[in-house]
Amino acid sequence: MSTQVHPSAQIHPTSLVSAEAVLGEGVVIGPFCVIEGPTAIGARTVLRSHVVIGPHTELGEDNVVFPHSSLGLEPQDLKFKGAPTRLRIGHRNTFREGVTVHRGTEAGGALTTVADDNFLMTGAHIAHDCHVGSGNIFANCATLAGHVTVGEKTNIGAFSAVHQFCRVGDHAFMGGFTVATLDVLPFMKTVGARDTKSYGVNTVGLQRKGFGPEVVEGLKKAHRLLFHAGLLREEAMAKVLDELGGIPEVAYLVAFIRESRRGIHRG
To answer: What pTM was estimated for this model as a whole?
Structure first.
């Protein structure tokens, strides 16, 4: 047993624990867990079974992590190249089955934090560079995108999602299936999923992927003709192909609409 493991810690023989891991007093590592290092797990924290703890992760005292959760693995960011970014978790948090919390990214401050006394239900997700305060409840499959800040004692309803870079104020209540694309006011009830619509061309995304201005402007014009020119669908598609059909991306857009069987989201 490594000198970094407290003598009272219990490690099931089916689990793999890095020699770089530091385990505090009374830590319990259940069956089939994987602890990558360097990692520190505080006193009396329990990993029930089938838990993965990534490197550069710190867990405080008295946390409970249920099966098939993973804490501190690499962020879901295509720019991430393996930097030793960190996840820091406080005390007395509960992570139910299938919860995921990711480490930070270099561009986002290299750190994700979760404070104390939080309860994350099955399937909840906290993405890279988020900062979560204390006493919050995340219902099933509640999701934070990257760079979200959550205050204290909030309630984030089941299947809700918070867009990147948004804030959720102290004591905010988000009803189930709520989509927050702006800051969520403290002390208030914020409820409602957006009506799913097409809001036009993803200009910035396409530019980042290398699409030229002719393509982007052609798609914008096609979108206006298809959905905002008052034309019938077939008439609009014919006009788009007549004026812009030489742009392959526009031709594909029209073909996609024409081949749709279930219908499309539109503005």
So the answer is: 0.88
